[in-house]
Amino acid sequence: MEEARTTKNFIEAFIEEDMATKENRIQTRFPPEPNGYLHIGHAKALFIDFSMAEKYGGKCNLRYDDTNPTKEDEEFVDAIQEDIAWLGFHWDNVFYGSDYFDTCYDLAVKLIKKGVAYVCDLDKDQMREYRGTLTEPGKNSPWRERSVEENLDLFARMKNGEFPDGSRTLRAKIDMASPNMNMRDPAMYRIIHMSHHHTGDKWCIYPMYDFAHPIQDAIEGVTHSLCSLEYEAHRPLYNWVVEQCEFEHKPRQIEFARLNLTNTIMSKRYLRRLVEEGYVSGWDDPRMPTLCALRRRGYTPEAIKDFLTRVGVAKADSVVDSAMLEHCLREDLNAHAPRMMAVLDPIKVVIENWEAGKFEDVQVENLPGSEETRTVRFGRDLYIEREDFSYDPPKKYFRLKPDGEVRLKGAYVVKCTRYETDAEGNVTTVYCTYDPETKGGECERKIKGTIHWVSCADAVPAEFRLYEPMMQDVNEENAELDFVERFNADSLIVRQGFVEPALAAVQPGYRAQFMRVGYFCADLDYTKEKPVFNRAVGLKDSFKAN
Length: 546
Prior knowledge:
By secondary structure, this protein is α/β, with parallel strands linked by helices. 26% of the residues lie in helices and 23% in strands.
């Protein structure tokens, strides 16, 4: 029993303790704000919220935190649901924070009547000045002692649209000397004259997250409100709202560390800027850390969930090497992705002792260890990777070179007899002879090098998009740079090459290992006439698993 206990994370320990001593059930919620697309950081919160409910036989609601109409949109609402479903999770109910606006308003009136909320006329800068510092207490607002009647009147007039944006707020009356800055009379309502994506023009005052969220949790019967570590200091306010609103059901807030990745920007504000200023093609640009971008690049739900499981649940913030995420994808695709042949940077090979116009079928394996093979045509003219030939090779170069031999995957051993170059010295054509006794490995001679190829007669022109980290990681030299100045200009390299004909008959989203090159995914721009493939991840693994 003790051994099993040590395998639990602290959230699981809290849940099991509560289920044994309080309600024998679990209800969680995932509350994204629909002001952008979910990224890999959100995926950690999503994973924890849904998997904890699943593990303990509970339910998880999807609830949109749409209390700020300035940047929210139905586009993001739809995208969030698509991402959750893609990861394989199922919500119990879909709610909107705006569904509770009437209740929030009524409860705000209740707090005014109790004397624990007041309308304040300080503007944003004045509120910051009155708030104090971490070492100095704040000062009471001049409007803190307004009568209940005056506060009720002003709050109703705020609701009726009589005052301009930012001119008044409704604040909780707690303690301006509290060592917790969040308890120094925090704002609960602000004025925003803007149409809301879900409620239209019904409201011009909107509740603050710290006021609305605990109310929503309590109404829905959420037992464990799981959130990231920055809300730890907000927990006393969360509990204060639940107590002052006199809810019988009291959710428990538990905080965990956020996910931070090397070479990765996780701020939705910054990601929005990359999109709006044209540094990337959109939210689903495969360089972005959004789930829709990872999906387009070729990531699988299984790889992402494996990664999040390995990251685990911790109380302290840390930075995870992005190589771990790539490792998880590489492991998944290595086990499931078929092996195909593509040449990204081609040079031509001519087999001089092969009859012109003659073709022969050869068999190539689909997956290592599998008996399944596919047929490809072999002929006189082929394409190989430029890096697979060298006229001045380094030591231990086991690919094609003058007077050297290599095996062409699934076909024959060939020997280079000569080559041609252009005016700049670039190799254009390599001439070889083949050994007819060596088809498909039927050869006693040991050949160290095996390379892939595509028959010129069947080769389909294709575009390959090779991705590197979008952001240069912060170091001593660039620490002062604006984040867009750390944008990696070489994060996308486009190559024009060829694929075997089978790769011209797949669908966007199809994943394969291009032999000796990497794992690729057919892009959304893919067509049969012009296949486009994204490199999801390379073959080399720099991550050292424990």
